[in-house]
Structure formats: structure tokens, C-alpha cells
Design a protein that fits this description.
Blueprint lengths: L16 H12 L7 E5 L7 H6 L3 E6 L2 H13 L6 E5 L14 E7 L8 H11 E12 L1 H10 L3 H9 L17 H9 L4 E8 L8 H6 L1 H11 L11 E7 L2
Parallel strand pairs: 1-2, 1-4, 2-3, 4-5
Antiparallel strand pairs: 5-7, 6-7
Length: 247
């Protein structure tokens, strides 16, 4: 009898392990059922293609045609082109692109810190979810930015990050805002979502020299996962991951 090919395990690094730990549980929760997944701002498919490889259908909405072209090639190379759909648009046009109540899981990673109206994007995400559907939100953390500027001697920028209402270091800051865990969670709750989990992402991975990261990657991965859900370590991570569900 011909054996079924075994797909190579998806590579997991310390920089994304905490997110994948949550997503893997959600993707495997309805055993044997194909989920409808939406990746807002999903770019070239770093999350979308592995989700499709796991047997689910993914629509990626992104404003960049170049990123979507790279996504299409990546999906084809992975043999999941029939499971990945590319749609040009952005989070703020989501309501006109996705049927309300049609999605089981939404990924919104590194989006809410750059859009004009984060509350509007979260509202559109909530509308797109089916009852019981979930959203994975990943945002830039304010505390990590403060510490990062301070240890690099940029004390003025660090002070600005502390006092600025949106957590910006000044007019040249590339992000419109940064979050702490409470403000990120409150944004989701204000749209009627119920926060289930909160993790820090890249708690220490961004603080270590490359020689340490490369020297014992498994030890770093284990430590990142151990710290990711523990305050205060969770709260000083470079990114904050909030997982919420529509009742």
C-alpha cells in the first residue's frame, strides 16, 4: 500500500511560538472541520500559508499588491493555492470586503498600531466573525519600546513614549500608537468580544545577542513560552498577543 506523505513540521521560533501555541489549539479545536480564516494585513502569508497547510481556508486582505503576489507564489509553492485567497484592501475597508458573520477565526497582527481608526477595524472584525468565532490580535507594546529606547541612550524618546497618549516617541515615529495589555484588551471588549488569553511575544528574544539566540535556540524557545503568560514579563514584551471570542 502506498504511504501518505508526511508534511514536515512547521518551524517555530522564539519570536512566534507564543502566538502559534494559541492558534494551534484553536485550529485543532473542531476536530476534522475546515475553518474559514481571515488574515487582515497578512502580507506574504507567514501565518496564512501554514494555516492553509493545516487544512483550513484562508482569505488574506492586504493593501500591498506586491505582498499579495508574493503570497500567491508562496501558497502555490506550498501546494495550497486552492486554499488561499488574496484580496487587496485594508482593515478599514474590511466591512465592504467580507460577508458579516462568515468567519471562524481572524488574524489581525501588527495592524491596529498603524490604522487611522483601530476601534472601527475591531468593530468590522467583530461583525465578520460567526458567533463563537475568535480573533488573534498582535500589537506593539509600549513598555518594551520605552525600555528599548532607554537602554540605547535615547532618553528623550523613552520619556516621550511614557507620556504620549498614544505611546509614540515623536513625529518621526513609524507607528501611530502602542498598547499595554489593558488598553489592547479594552479595545476588544468595547466591541463586544470576550478576552480569553493574553501573552507577551518576544519577551526576551529581542534583548539577546545573536550568539546567544543561535547558541541554544531550544532553551530560548522554552524560556519565551514560560515567560509569555507571566506578568510582569508578559507586559514588557515587544508585542502583546490578545485572543478573544465573539459570544
Amino acid at each position: 500500500m502506498e504511504s501518505t506523505p508526511t508534511r514536515a513540521p512547521r518551524p517555530v521560533s522564539a519570536r512566534n511560538a507564543a502566538v502559534w501555541a494559541v492558534l494551534d489549539r484553536e485550529l485543532g479545536r473542531p476536530a476534522g472541520r475546515e475553518l474559514t480564516v481571515l488574515d487582515v494585513g497578512g502580507g506574504t502569508g507567514g501565518f496564512a500559508v501554514p494555516v492553509a497547510e493545516a487544512g483550513h481556508r484562508v482569505t488574506v486582505v492586504d493593501a500591498s499588491p506586491d505582498a499579495l503576489a508574493a503570497l500567491t507564489r508562496r501558497a502555490a509553492d506550498a501546494g495550497v493555492a486552492d486554499r488561499v485567497r488574496a484580496v487587496q484592501g485594508d482593515g478599514e475597508s474590511l466591512a465592504g470586503l467580507i460577508e458579516p458573520g462568515s468567519v471562524d477565526l481572524i488574524l489581525c497582527h501588527s495592524v491596529l498600531e498603524v490604522v487611522d481608526d483601530p476601534a472601527g477595524v475591531v468593530s468590522a472584525i467583530t461583525s465578520a466573525l460567526r458567533p463563537g468565532g475568535a480573533v488573534s490580535v498582535l500589537v506593539a507594546g509600549r513598555a518594551a519600546a520605552v525600555l528599548g529606547r532607554a537602554v540605547n541612550g535615547q532618553l528623550g524618546a523613552a520619556a516621550a513614549l511614557v507620556t504620549d497618549p498614544d505611546g509614540r516617541s515623536g513625529p518621526r515615529d513609524t507607528l501611530r500608537r502602542r498598547y499595554d495589555m489593558e488598553s489592547a484588551s479594552a479595545l476588544l471588549r468595547s466591541a463586544g468580544l470576550e478576552v480569553e488569553q493574553a501573552h507577551g511575544v518576544r519577551v526576551i528574544a529581542d534583548l539577546l545577542p545573536a550568539s546567544v539566540v543561535e547558541g541554544d535556540p531550544q532553551a530560548l524557545l522554552d524560556l519565551e513560552l514560560s515567560l509569555s503568560a507571566q506578568p510582569p514579563f508578559r507586559d514588557i514584551a515587544s508585542q502583546l498577543h490578545v485572543f478573544a471570542r465573539r459570544p
